[in-house]
Amino acid sequence: MASLLQGTLFEMSAQAPPPSKDYYQLLVTNSMVIWRCWRISLRSESRNMHPSEQKNTYQDFLDDLNLQVHVSVIFGNGVLKYVCGLCQQQFDYLERLPKDLLLNVILCLELEDIARLSQTSKAFKKICNSDELWENIVLRYCDTITSEMQALAFDVGWKEIFFTNKLQLQKKIYRRRQKVEDNATDVPDQSHALQS
Fold first, then answer.
1. What contacts 100, CB < 8 A, 6 or more positions away?
2. Could you tell me the pTM of the whole model?
3. Residue 157 CB partners (closer than 8 Å, separation 6+)
4. Mean pLDDT of 88-109
5. Residue 93 above 80 pLDDT?
6. Phi then psi for 99, rounded to 5 degrees?
7. Using one digit for the tens of pLDDT, what is the confidence trace for 153-185?
8. 53 to each of 23, 33, 83, 137, how far by Cα in Å?
């Protein structure tokens, strides 16, 4: 399965904690860990310093405790633990699925399970709260979708539409219709202005 992973598995950039102004990048590919550093200083003797790059195999990274300390200081212990996991072939294949396939998988879950899945990572939170997912859920559970409901969903989102009861939904549609009509009557008649 690991051979299916292509390109960059993980990438993160950050500035070192104060007082340093140095900038770092950590890149994990399917075969190595790349550590890049840009030294930033106002001192004249440091102005000609070029960025540095250190490439390590997975095993070299796991053996280099000094580099691991740098990663932990710059990016935090969570990132260090995740990168060490990648170096030990512990990949999260589920997050690497294409978005449309992942949406189809999530659509097979119960609503409570979708709520739990959204709490597992930032990527799943984004997908589980996406309009694309909730539009499909609304289409599955609701009998009819009017054009007014679609317009309201454009304003408030499909998740809001799903969790709004019918009476509240009718009120929101009515208010939106009134707002649209009021905006239409507020526009001055251009033909009358041209005749004057």
1. none
2. 0.54
3. 131, 134
4. 84
5. no
6. -60, -45
7. 788 888 887 777 667 777 777 888 888 888 877
8. 12, 10, 17, 47
| 8 Å CB contact between 95 and 107 | no
State how far the alpha carbon of 117 is from the alpha carbons of 86, 121, 124, in Å: 22, 8, 6
Which positions ≥6 away from 68 have C-beta within 8 Å? 61, 80, 84
The token pair that represents 47 in the structure block? 């102005």
Residue of 167, 163, 165, 172 whose CA lies nearest to 114? 163
Strand partners, 37: 24, 52
3-state secondary structure the chain: CHHHCCCEEEEEEEECCCCCCCEEEEEEECCEEEEEEECCCCCHHHCCCCCEEEEEEHHHHHHCHHHHHHHHHHHCHHHHHHHHHHHCCCCCCHHHCCHHHHHHHHHCCCHHHHHHHCCCCHHHHHHHCCHHHHHHHHHHHCCCCCHHHHHHHHHHCHHHHHHCCHHHHHHHHHHHHHHHHHHHHHCCCHHHHHHC
- Picking from 79, 78, 62, the residue whose alpha carbon sits closest to that of residue 27 is 79
pLDDT in tens, 38-79: 988 777 666 677 889 999 999 999 999 999 999 999 999 989
Amino acid letter for position 53: E
